[in-house]
Amino acid sequence: MKKILQSLGVAALMTVAGSANAQLPDYGVYPGGLTLTDYPGGTTYDIDAILDSGKPVILDLFAVWCGPCWNYHQAGTLEDVYNNIGAGGTDEVFIIAVDADPSTPENTLDGGGNSIGDWVTGTDYPVCNDDGVASLMNLAYYPTLLLICPDRTVTEVGQASAAGWVSAVNACGSTASNTNDPRIIDNTSVSDITLCGGGTATTDIKVAVQNYSTSAINGTYTIEASLGGSPIATTNATLNLQPYAATEVNVGSVNLALGMNNVLVTITTANDDLTNDDISAPINVVQAVDAGAGDLDIEVKLDNYASEVGVAVASGNPYLTDASAAYSAANGGSYTGLIDFVSIGTWTANGSTQHVYVPGLATGCYHFIMFDDYGDGMLSGSSLKLISDDGTTNTFATNYGSMGTFAFEVTEAGDGGFTGVEEAIAVTSIELFPNPAVDMTNVQLNLSEVSVVTIEMYNALGQIVYTNNLGEVNGFQNVEVATADLEGGMYLMNINVNGNIMTKRVTVAK
Q1: C-alpha dihedral sign at 313, 314, 318, 321
Q2: % of the chain exceeding 90 in pLDDT
Q3: Packing angle between helix 67-75 and helix 77-84, nearest 10 degrees?
Q4: Which of 142, 147, 156, 312 has its CA 20 to 30 A from that of 375?
């Protein structure tokens, strides 16, 4: 049975997690300013002061209602760490557990309310409730177990063993010791680029720079990107940073050829420690697959978790890499170039084969995104294909995590039909007009054979605001949908033909 890792649904809620990569604070650097008060004792702990003393901090961020959180807490792993290298042992690390859900009151730590149990009794290290830590640490799910090192780098260790925690603590960076030590701590450039047509790929080289100094720095530092030993971009970055603060620096725009481009980014201005002044920024440029003619069928053979999967189709290259942000933007929001969308939860028949038909595309670059609200893509028995009306077929991997992006190029304009695809449903055309709608919109479809048709319209909350079961129909159909009583905004129109669902977006203007 799969556990929910991260909700990608319309109503974005914090959900429980077994293990995954948390959305860490910006650039993986602790932002500072966190004080926590234990319950019920009332002792206040200044996390910055603890880090300044050279001691790492383990944060167990949980919710009192979270089952996996409770299981890890009850296993006693952090108790073992506490009695080994924590205050109960050699006192090398500070451990604190925090109920980070702002909606739960502090007294639920004792049990009661929606709490699973008593989180305090028998726990040697501090336990507290804090309403601000979730936003401070960009918390994405529960439990999230973080290690903050004295150099302010933050790592998600996860539900590790006691030995795993000891190893992570031993690998921590120390407090700053130099007076002028900017260092590159993260490569924030894109790692993969899909190129349509010929030529080269253009992208910005970006890195995160931290002030790893004992005092503030305020000066100009030259940062250079090189490829094969030759400079390809340079910038003079003005860094005005307090100790341990970090910022992103755009080194410049570069043109990259197909293949792996092993870019090296270096601070070339003299400073106290040159050993932390460079970072590798590998960027792989691949050619987009040739989809052939622009009448396309995305054929999805689902696994046994059909309701976890959604798909978006858009023109151009992907521009959002975070699954939650991309899903929210596409599903009723604003996603650049969006053509079609099938919401997570629309497909419910486990093991079935579904189709997303995208007719009449002009030549150019496109992409589709598969979403999975568990975070492991589709499992054994599934498949993912892009089939053109001219017979061109491309197959993609289905173990893509929370989101897989698949770029393709249409090299011949589509004519709006699907006659060359064996699996095509009996729809030769679908039109939705007027769009935007004020008082009404028409759904027009042409059917080449008798088909069972249902039309449903959803608002941005996923609620059905219109439904019409046409039953068995054939030929040209015009369905008038009243919108006068609807609020202004974006809606999704699902047209279900013989179990195959096509989704259109309609805007209601008020």
Answers
A1: negative
A2: 62
A3: 40
A4: 147
Cα separation, 494 vs 179, in Å, equals: 61
Contacts of 382 (CB under 8 A, 6+ apart): 300, 301, 302, 303, 398
Q: How far apart are CA 112 and CA 115, in angstroms?
A: 6
Rounded distance, CA 352 to CA 341, Å? Answer: 19
Query: Tokens 């999967």 belong to which residue?
Result: 309
Which residues share a beta bridge with 386?
A: 298, 394
What's the token pair of residue 130?
């804090």
Model pTM?
A: 0.69
**How distant, in Å, are the alpha carbons of 197, 296, 337, 476 from that of 505?**
29, 18, 12, 21
Average pLDDT of every residue of the chain: 88
C-alpha 145/C-alpha 19 separation (Å) is 10
Helices 77-84 & 162-170, crossing angle to 10 degrees?
A: 50
All CATH 2.60.60 domain ranges in the chain, comma separated: 288-423
CATH topology of domain 182-285: Immunoglobulin-like (2.60.40)
Could you give the CA distance from residue 57 to residue 99 in angstroms, rounded to a whole number?
A: 16
Predicted confidence at residue 417, as pLDDT, reads 59
- List every span in the chain annotated with CATH 2.60.40.10: 182-285
Residue 444 has pLDDT above 50, yes or no: yes
User: Distances from the Cα of 86 to the Cαs of 83, 126, 179, 391, in angstroms?
Assistant: 6, 12, 31, 64
Residue ranges matching CATH 2.60.40.2550 in the chain: 425-510
Q: Which of 259, 260, 312, 296 is nearest to 281 (CA)?
A: 260
Predicted confidence band of residue 262 (pLDDT cuts 50, 70, 90)? very high
Per-residue model confidence as pLDDT tens digits over 55-89: 999 999 999 999 999 999 999 999 999 999 999 99
* 425-510 CATH: 2.60.40.2550
User: Tens digits of per-residue pLDDT, 453-486?
Assistant: 999 998 877 788 999 999 999 888 999 999 999 9
Contacts 24+ apart (CB under 8 A), 257-264: 257/200, 257/201, 257/285, 258/195, 258/201, 258/285, 258/286, 258/287, 259/284, 259/285, 260/284, 261/227, 261/285, 262/227, 262/228, 263/189, 263/205, 263/225, 263/226, 263/227, 263/232, 264/225, 264/226, 264/227
Cis (ω within 30 of 0) for the bond into 436? yes
What class does CATH assign to 288-423?
A: mainly beta
Mapped onto helix, strand or coil, the DSSP state of residue 249 is strand
* pLDDT for the residue 249: 98
Where are the CATH 3.40.30.10 domain residues in the chain? Answer: 15-170
In this structure, is the dihedral angle defined by the CA atoms of residues 313, 314, 318 and 322, taken in order, positive or negative? negative
* pLDDT per position as a tens digit, 302-314: 999 999 999 999 9
Cα–Cα distance for residue pair 56/435, rounded to 1 Å: 57
- Is the pLDDT score of 390 beyond 90? no
What pLDDT, on the 0 to 100 scale, is given for residue 430?
75
